[in-house]
Amino acid sequence: MSTNVGMIDRVLRIIVGLALIAWALGWIGPVTGWNWVGWIGIVPLATALFGTCPAYSLLGISTCPAPKR
Predict the structure, then answer these.
(1) First-to-last CA distance in the chain?
(2) CB 59 within 8 A of CB 4
(3) Of 1, 23, 42, 45, which residue is the least packed, with the fewest Cβ within 10 Å?
(4) Nearest Cα to 52, choosing from 63, 40, 42?
(5) pLDDT band at 50, cuts 50/70/90?
(6) How confident is the model at residue 15 (pLDDT cuts 50, 70, 90)?
(7) Closest among 7, 10, 9, 6 to 49, alpha carbons compared
(8) Are residues 28 and 22 in contact, defined by beta-carbon separation less than 8 angstroms?
């Protein structure tokens, strides 16, 4: 798989992923029966760390700058 996640996109995914996991652990916000949903934060973290997003690949999207020739 080629890299299709740009730097700004990666930073935003890391922030969102960490916030969702913090919510799942009860570090931010109230502890409710829905905190388990925060574990979805693993997905944006993984896509940011690997630099590739399967959904972007399927849709033909890339936020990486165009390669220089």
Answers:
(1) 21
(2) no
(3) 1
(4) 63
(5) very high
(6) very high
(7) 10
(8) yes
